[in-house]
Amino acid sequence: MRVVPAIDIIKGKLVRLSEGDYGSVSSYGLSPLDAAKMFEDGGLTSLHLVDLDGAAGRGSNLDVLERIASETRLEVDFGGGIRTEEDCRRAFDAGASAVNVGSIAVKNPESVLIWNEKFNNRIILSADARDGRIAVSGWMEDTDISVIPFIQRFLENGIRRAAVTDIARDGMLSGPSLGLYKTILDALPDLCLIASGGISSLSDLVSLSRIGVKAAIVGKAFYEGRMTIAEMKEAECLQDA
User: Taking CA atoms, which of 1, 17, 20, 60 is between 20 and 30 Å from 138?
Assistant: First the structure.
């Protein structure tokens, strides 16, 4: 299982939200590039970079992606505000290894499948769930779409990776939604599931790996001092052993 540290950005600054609430922003006095270099120096190889301004439709932080991609060797998956094929292209041109799509996958799934073909399977589906149903527009808009059928449609059409976030746990350090992830993997065993939200300890990472999760995104646990980069790397090594 890969452990993927997260960097969320508003106006070029590293922040964290709680339950996706833009009114509950925490800042840490650490630049996105400095954080990325810390993760790289600690032996991690991947990064989850989220443009919260882009997700809310009020700007772009592609310049942050470009700096991180040019000054580190991290494989960066980028999300937030990806709404068109040109948005995908700009993100890839700025150095993204993959892009995350969420809202547009609900509103225009056919286009997302076309993009995945055009960009050689470098699309990751973002399935952000509140009470088992998909939320969009930076988690500010709920839908009636259940998470498993939503993921299944894309899996059957070639998108194998899905980052699944239980919004109620995101940024709360209350433990990952193991029940939700197990239910999804039981229904969709071929899915490469990326877990996000609530992860607060090394034991959480081990528990996720045991149920078949392929990657786990760690954010607030690191920034709040609940988990070290060494522990993230240890979780990867334990599973490689």
Answer: 1
